[in-house]
Write a structure and sequence with these properties.
The structure holds two protein chains of two kinds. Chain A is α/β, with parallel strands linked by helices. Chain A has four helices and five strands. The longest helix of chain A has 16 residues, at 58-73. By secondary structure, chain B is an alpha+beta fold. Chain B starts with 8 loop residues before the first strand and ends with a strand. The chains are: A alpha/beta, B alpha+beta.
């Protein structure tokens, strides 16, 4: 049973990763693959849309921690949008809001890349 | 009739140490937490803490070998919920893992090290001991109000 899915789409100079389902130690390698592909393609501006993500464990959180610096070193970033409350609470518990930008919706996150 | 959560309750699950089984563990925990009368928020916390404990076992005790056993025992006694998780892998004491520094981890592009910190945040107690038969025991405790 596929309990996690990541799909990528381009919006101007930004790539949007849409996450769906359950992100844990079993499914985190899928997300790593998606980030590796973005880096290979030199796409460093990333919005992660969490609209359909129901669950995240530290294995999933770790993926963002492992990749954000590479994006920022290349003048890009990983910005988060559309997070459900239960998912945001986990990011919040670990102190992510100090180091990452969270937006209510994708458009808002995309706009921030235009301003930069 | 007594409310569910006032009853004493016990549940058991044994699964192999494959990350594939994390979803099986979550389903088992969802049903058990419901039987204990936990609300959605508390259920979410318990599921995540158990997921983190089992992920650590798969990663550190069994080093990703899918042949090991992970035992989960849930016991509710007088509003005290104790989840005992056992394995026969290498000893791994979560108490010895330092509190993560997010900024430092990020600079080093480090992906791990957050799970135990999360477990401690989500539960009232996280205890570790080595049993007489040399198995590891991680005990997660939550006092239900």
């Amino acid at each position: 049973m596929a309990d996690f899915n990541v799909s990528a789409r381009g919006v101007g100079s930004v790539n949007v990763l849409e996450l769906k389902g359950y992100l844990d130690a079993h499914t985190a390698p899928e997300l790593e693959k998606a980030f590796n592909k973005l880096i290979d393609d030199k796409s460093f501006n990333v919005v992660v849309n969490f609209k359909d993500l129901n669950y995240i464990s530290s294995a999933g959180l770790g993926v963002f921690m492992a990749y954000v610096e590479t994006m920022r070193e290349n003048k890009g970033d990983i910005k988060f949008s559309n997070m459900k409350e239960n998912v945001f609470n986990i990011f919040d518990l670990l102190g992510f809001p100090v180091l990452y930008e969270f937006y209510k919706d994708e458009t808002e996150a995309l706009e921030k890349f235009k301003v930069q | 009739m007594l409310k569910n959560r006032e009853k004493n309750l016990e549940r058991n699950l044994v699964v192999k140490s494959s990350t594939d089984n994390l979803s099986v563990i979550r389903e088992f925990m969802t049903a058990a937490a419901a039987d204990c009368g936990c609300n959605d928020e508390l259920t979410g916390k318990i599921i995540l803490a158990v997921d983190e404990a089992c992920t650590n076992i798969i990663k550190h005790a069994y080093k990703y070998s899918p042949e090991g056993d992970i035992g989960i025992n849930i016991k509710l006694t007088n509003s005290k919920l104790v989840i005992s998780i056992t394995d026969s892998g290498e000893h791994f004491n979560p108490g010895e893992v330092p509190t993560p520094n997010l900024l430092e981890y990020q600079k080093k592009k480090k992906a791990g090290g957050l799970g135990i910190f999360l477990m401690r945040k989500l539960m009232d107690e996280v205890n570790y001991k080595i049993l007489n038969d040399n198995r590891n025991l991680v005990e997660l405790v939550k006092h239900l109000k």
